[in-house]
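User: Show me sequence and structure for the first protein, then do the same for the second.

Assistant: Starting with the first protein.
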Amino acid sequence: MNHLRLLRYVDEVARAGSIRQAAERLHVAPSAVNRRILDLEDELGTPIFERLPRGMRLTAAGELFVRYIRGRSAELDEVRSQIDELKGLRRGRVSLVASQALAPSFLPGVVASFREAHPLAVHQVRIGDHLHALEALRAFEADLALVFNLSPEADIEVLAEFEQPLVAVMHRDHPLAARSSVRVRDCADYPLMLPNRDIGGRQLLEKFLVRSSVKLHPVVESNSFEFLRGCLYHGQAVSFQIAIGAVEDGGALVARPLEDRHFPHGRLVLAGLRGRQLPVIAHAFAEHLKVALASLEA
């Protein structure tokens, strides 16, 4: 791009008012700068500098030409920025910590649809709870976190949040599966497969039970949603899951909303480290996530 170098030579001489000083700033020989300017003046058919005993001064034509150079330089900077963004959107790495409920279905689908437009993007996905998410964001090990009921923190910026109700999950042959919705009391009559108490969905259930006369006696507790889902194929069992994580296994399992009044809803939170500028590809993926999650609420 020799023409860009030439334009830079002219601009630098105009700023310095001296070929020698401009050459020092450009790290080239003064004779090379002078030769380029003479060639340009010959091409334009008019001088753009007055040669003075103590330096160089722009002519009227030179002022017009330098104004043109600086305008084009600003446009070029913008184009370069856009090119860099295009490179970032096509390539790059997205690191994410996500709740376990998103792992079986929702998140793989969102990653796949994002990769249709950005096939060179690489995703690093870690499954963890809100504590893992906070640690990863603060250690710069994750660009984004998408976790259930993330507690407010001063150094964490919430990018978006989406309401998530708890649902009852059971096999399609379960007696309750014929209903359009169920109550927690109805589920208590069957073997209960519940997440551990440190999992967000279980905490919603416990919050409801504090204000209810219903008592639940789980026969299985686990931190693995996959294991709990497997248990639903046996013994008319019932489990609970946030709606986005209620995988139906090709129709073998069904999810039924809870009709209990005042049952608490949780929040699925998309967050990042406050003050951190996300890589272009990570920002694009965050926007893609927002659209996908908003479509679930529509």
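Switching to the second protein now.
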Amino acid sequence: MFVERSGIIVWVNDTKAARNLERFGSVHYISKKMHYVAMYVHTTKLEEAMRNIQKLPYVKKVERSYRNEIKTEYSSDGPDKSKFYTL
């Protein structure tokens, strides 16, 4: 149903030209002050998209987001310390 997506951070020289990155994936945010673009690409086409984006003349650097790999499930194995902080 849902397509797996991966995040990419693209550092650019020109933010107006960065609008052309729509053809590689979904542009989520363009920072005019810090000159970067946050975008999402299909996971199956990630490496190919990163190579093609890096070849563009207005791109400085392309970084992959590791948000999918961060553990988001937490366990409460430690002791409950809430009784020490009550009044």
